[in-house]
Amino acid sequence: MKKISVSLASLILLFSTGMVIAMEVVNTKKMMFDKEFEKFPKELKKEILLLTDAIGFLCWQPLTLAGPHGHTDAVIALAVSNDRVVTGSWNSGAKIWDLYTGKCLFTLSEHLYIEKIVISHDKVVSLCSAGTVKVWNIYSGAFVHELALQMVTSVALCRDKVIAWSERELPGIIKIWNIHTGELVYTLEHSKFISVAVSNDKLISWSVEGIIKIWDINTGKLLHEFEQSGKIFLGAAHKNKIGFGSFEEATNRWNVKIKDVTTGEVKTLLGANEQRSSINLLGISDDKVVARADDYSAKIWNIATGELVFCGPSSYTPLIIIEDKVIVVPSLASYSARVWDMKKSRFSHFLEGHVGPIRVVAPGYNTVITGSEDYTAKIWPLQLNVQGTSDNNPLVWIIEKADKIQLSFIKSAYEATIGEKDFIIDMPKKLGALEKNESLEQLYGRIYFTFPEHAREYLRNRLNIRRDALLMEKVEGCLIQ
Reduced to 3 states, what is the DSSP secondary structure of residue 419? Predict the structure, then answer.
């Protein structure tokens, strides 16, 4: 096979099966590539097409967060930052993973029974079932401090502030803490409040009697207070819009309403007043409102028009909106999630691969992360991820720097994987010059170690690359460590 240049490898990646990149410059390059491709020898064409499939397979395979350092029970909490994923479970604490490679970087084992995780810049905040809140450094895994509030019901973040409240210990009280120092900076009072939302530098609290308060998080001052008809049971906020789910006793119906704080206008969303089951989730994402009811039905409306743009089944996991797509887990027993395209009014992706029910879903940049009862989390690409550099994104490294031998290794491992076989490699006796009578597996092992560490992590997470366990590992057929 002739040497494949870096530019040709890049083109192979761009036109891999299933990829669509709507850029005029790419279309021009594709026309040039197609013209040149016809001149290639038959065997070279075959190799290129097979390599195209292999790279395309890598790009669209979910990244599985598991392995020897993974969770030992269901993943029930998730949060995502620029290059990190944090997962939480009951008896194995929280774990911090590399978003690109799937490598487990740190285990936050001092906090068990995790129920919620939120991230702000370089800090991770974890809430456990006992109601304690701890703060960690996302890049070192170091414990920073614990909030001096027990039996916490829930937490939210706004830049360098942690908002926490305890319905059991301090009903009607909302506390705001400095995330870096753990200092209590403000205490807010709202009698019988049942829901809190954060939008920009504002905190919005609701009471069941219909009293809504808007606070300045930076000063702790009350900015606005107003009353809505009906009993309010939950709310959401985004920019100058406030959404709330209320129950009208006169009609025995649940309503979803949107209030524009600037103009005071209140809009009841179309179809919402047909809802008989109680609403247990409400969210606002840009120009969309999401509501889910106890009968596991979900609805999404366009705020500007009030038009219902989605209606379908949904489990207890949050509905995630990413631009014009909705991530839906259909039922409590679903092993897969679905991606609803709101522009095309159809499902565009089916995220299948878990072997246990999905418990939690979180959005990332052009990705969806799911946590399951199968003890794993998976990162699903919705678009080709070539963000970052070759130093931190292994896919970019493969595009820009992999040579002919390394690409051949990827191709061979891919063929084994799609054939549902293990691609066995062996540790060479020593790296460097080839030894006499080395096996094919040792040769593969030698090639494998020419990849940088982050690329090795990326490949072994997606391909069935295996080696025999060492005696000290006391297991057979383990993943490469």
Answer: coil
Average confidence (pLDDT) over 110-137 = 89
Looking at the fold, whether 11 and 44 belong to one and the same domain comes out as yes
Q: Are residues 416 and 324 part of one domain?
A: no
Residue 116, domain member (yes or no): yes
Which tokens hold the place of 302?
A: 């366009």
Please state, in angstroms and rounded to a whole number, the distance separating the CA atoms of residues 153 and 90.
17
φ, ψ of residue 423 in degrees (nearest 5): -100, 100
Dihedral sign, Cα of residue 169, residue 118, residue 481, residue 63: positive
Q: How far is CA 143 from the centre of its chain?
A: 23
CA neighbours closer than 13 Å in the CB half-sphere of residue 250: 2
Shared-domain flag, residues 264 and 178: yes
In a domain, 314, yes or no: yes
256 within 8 A of 268, measured Cβ to Cβ? yes
Residue 450 is encoded by which pair of tokens? 């020419």
Tokens of 159: 């830049």
Cα within 13 Å of Cα(296), Cβ side:
12
Residue where one domain finishes, among candidates 350, 381, 412: 381
At 169-193, the pLDDT tens digits run: 788 999 999 999 999 999 999 998 8
**76 in Cβ contact with 115 (< 8 Å):** yes
**Residues spanned by the domain of 154:** 63-381
Q: How many domains does the chain have?
A: 2
pLDDT over threshold 60, residue 24: no
Question: 0.85 cut: is pTM over it?
Answer: no
Q: Name the domain boundary from 381, 408, 434.
A: 381
Amino acid at 368: V
Say whether both 55 and 174 belong to one domain.
no
Task: List all residues 6 or more positions away from 220 whose beta carbon is below 8 Å from its beta carbon.
Answer: 176, 185, 186, 187, 188
Residue 26 has pLDDT above 80, yes or no: no
Q: What is the mean pLDDT of the chain?
A: 81
- The answer on 338 and 261 residing in a single domain is yes
Secondary structure (3-state) at 316:
coil
Q: Does 1 reside within a domain? A: no
Tokens of 320: 């995630």
- Cα 64 to Cα 82, 328, 360, 364: the distances in Å are 18, 19, 15, 15
Residue 460 and residue 332 share a domain:
no
Question: What average pLDDT does this structure show over 11-16?
Answer: 45
How many other β-carbons are positioned within 10 Å of the β-carbon of residue 314? 25
| Same domain membership, residue 320 and residue 447 | no
Same domain, 124 and 48: no
- Write the CATH number for 339: 2.130.10.10
Task: Specify if 196 maps to a domain.
Answer: yes
Phi–psi pair at 356, nearest 5 degrees: -150, 165
Q: Give the span between the Cα atoms of 120 and 157, in whole angstroms.
A: 7
Asked if 92 and 102 count as a contact pair (C-beta separation under 8 A), the reply is no
Q: Is residue 259 within 8 Å of 199, Cβ to Cβ?
A: no
**CA proximity to 194, closest of 246, 159, 150, 257:** 246
